[in-house]
């Protein structure tokens, strides 16, 4: 794995989540000792790979966080609320998890000589972008609680870099897809669309299918990007984690039809248009460190269809930006 010394004790917060599981597997396969930290109960841990240990901790609690990270010298901080809908419905939970949780991680590492931190943030910090592709110096202007709590986490990391010399860098992920998403929490299009389509259900498209575009990045490319940031990212710097490929929702539906061999049925929810805007990453900065996203969308979709099987659990999360929209997505 790119330049990460095997001697380090690596902690992955949120290591039982979608991105976390994929990262932990890759780190363990490369021979690293990995400590998974998560809030989930130990009976749900299941079969973690060899060399991986589990520590239950709630990162909203400063002392639990400190104890759980006591012997880690490289921390990938992935734990958080990853759902925009949850952030709208329970903004306090969102803020305590994403903002306070990130503060607790930084504070736990503050006095640890040589500790290194990689924080996984989100492109939702950009809000509705104004120029394209979106580079890291684009203004940040989140428009719902999730983006605000993730941005607060970023500012906290940067403040600890400046004030305490913490060695930390930030990845801003675009829209991640791949194996391991929990349909109870996942609201991103690729997983949702496939889960509807493979159950013979119509795909619910939220927003304008042509004007709304996204940069869909396979989770294995996120894992590669995160490890590269850990190895070579500069302290205090932010790196976009995307592909640079822009895909409209209509193109995504067409790609699903192409790789699955059956034309998807769609229903368009044009009532909820809050997130109808273009979103595509400029990844020049990470490319300069050697990053090269390698999974094309068609290949990623083909693999995911195989992974999900014939009747995966259907999506369980509505897309809500304001409480008044509750029910709008179901009334198509
Ligand atoms: N999935 C995406 O498309 C996407 C895009 C951009 C950024 N991100 C960010 O990536 C990170 C991981 O996302 P994911 O998709 O794997 O999410 P996920 O919901 O699958 O995993 C998050 C994990 O964090 C754990 N967690 C939640 N609260 C916790 C707490 N208080 N203490 C300890 N653990 C806690 C959960 O139990 C879960 O295992 C998140 O921080 C998210 O904001 C995700």
TrEMBL record:
SUPFAM superfamilies, alphabetized: NAD(P)-binding Rossmann-fold domains (SSF51735)
Superkingdom per UniProt: Bacteria
NAD-dependent epimerase/dehydratase domain mapped to chain residues: 10-242
Pfam families: Epimerase (PF01370)
Record-linked PANTHER family: DTDP-D-GLUCOSE 4,6-DEHYDRATASE-RELATED (PTHR43000)
Family per similarity comment: Belongs to the NAD(P)-dependent epimerase/dehydratase family.
Name of the protein: NAD-dependent epimerase/dehydratase family protein
Organism of derivation: Streptomyces violaceus
């Amino acid at each position: 794995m790119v330049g990460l010394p095997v001697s380090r004790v690596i902690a992955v917060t949120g290591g039982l989540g979608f991105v976390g599981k994929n990262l932990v597997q890759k780190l363990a396969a490369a021979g690293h000792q990995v400590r998974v930290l998560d809030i989930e109960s130990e009976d749900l841990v299941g079969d973690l790979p060899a060399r991986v240990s589990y520590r239950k901790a709630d990162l909203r609690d400063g002392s639990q966080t400190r104890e759980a990270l006591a012997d880690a010298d490289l921390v990938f901080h992935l734990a958080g609320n990853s759902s925009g809908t949850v952030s709208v419905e329970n903004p306090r939970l969102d803020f305590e998890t994403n903002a306070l949780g990130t503060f607790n991680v930084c504070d736990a590492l503050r006095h640890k000589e040589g500790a290194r931190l990689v924080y996984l943030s989100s492109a939702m910090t950009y809000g509705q972008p104004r120029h394209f592709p979106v580079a890291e110096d684009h203004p940040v202007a989140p428009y719902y609680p999730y983006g605000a709590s993730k941005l607060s986490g970023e500012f906290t990391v940067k403040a600890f870099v400046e004030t305490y010399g913490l060695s930390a860098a930030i990845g801003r992920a675009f829209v991640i897809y791949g194996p391991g998403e929990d349909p109870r929490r996942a609201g991103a299009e690729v997983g949702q669309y496939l889960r509807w389509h493979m159950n013979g259900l119509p795909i619910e498209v939220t927003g304008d299918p042509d004007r709304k575009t996204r940069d869909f990045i396979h989770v294995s490319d996120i894992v590669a990007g995160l490890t590269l940031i850990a190895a070579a990212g500069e302290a205090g710097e932010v790196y976009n984690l995307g592909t640079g490929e822009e895909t409209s929702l209509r193109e995504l539906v067409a790609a699903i039809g192409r790789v699955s061999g059956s034309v998807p049925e769609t229903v368009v929810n044009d009532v909820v248009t809050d997130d109808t805007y273009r979103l595509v990453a400029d990844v020049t900065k990470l490319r300069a460190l050697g990053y090269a996203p390698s999974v094309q969308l068609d290949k990623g979709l083909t693999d995911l269809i195989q992974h999900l099987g014939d009747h995966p659990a259907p999506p369980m999360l509505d897309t809500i930006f304001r409480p008044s929209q509750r029910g709008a997505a179901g009334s198509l």
